[in-house]
């Protein structure tokens, strides 16, 4: 017997929403780590919750910080650059493809499991990417 399908809509109960956020965040970070290990790609995941707290996972956080900290604001890719709303799945898919494509151009150095969760510096706020 398979898992039952859930309806994809915002969870109204705040306690249930926070519990789901924590579980899904952990699952997403695990899948990102697995993807990086299996494909040898650098993977970057940034999540911002409803309280504006940012959580991140990166196969190499130092490279992530150095790569995006010194980029000119005019060269940064933002959701509006894809021509759709930031919340649509198509935009997220396009953005993910652009990031994965950009990271594959650089040689893989060392794969580390940085699945510890920490806040990102202000340089990585959602409006500056």
Automatic annotation (TrEMBL):
GO biological process assignments: positive regulation of transcription by RNA polymerase II
Entries under InterPro entries matching the protein: TF_MADSbox, TF_MADSbox_sf
Record-annotated MADS-box domain positions: 1-61
Keywords of this entry: DNA-binding, Nucleus, Transcription, Transcription regulation
PROSITE patterns with a match to the protein in the record: MADS_BOX_2
Region (Disordered): 76-129
Domain of life: Eukaryota
UniProt main location, coarse: nucleus
Name of the featured protein: MADS-box domain-containing protein
């Amino acid at each position: 017997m398979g898992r039952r399908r859930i309806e994809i809509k915002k969870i109204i109960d705040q306690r249930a929403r926070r519990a789901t956020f924590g579980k899904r965040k952990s699952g997403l970070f695990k899948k990102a780590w697995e993807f990086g290990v299996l494909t040898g790609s650098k993977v970057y995941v940034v999540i911002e919750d409803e309280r504006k707290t940012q959580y991140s996972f990166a196969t190499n956080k130092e490279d992530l910080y150095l790569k995006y900290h010194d980029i000119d604001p005019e060269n940064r890719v933002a959701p509006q650059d894809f021509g759709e709303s930031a919340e649509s799945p198509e935009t997220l898919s396009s953005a993910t493809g652009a990031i994965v494509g950009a990271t594959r151009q650089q040689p893989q150095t060392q794969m580390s499991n940085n699945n510890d969760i920490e806040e990102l510096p202000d340089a990585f706020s959602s409006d500056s990417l």
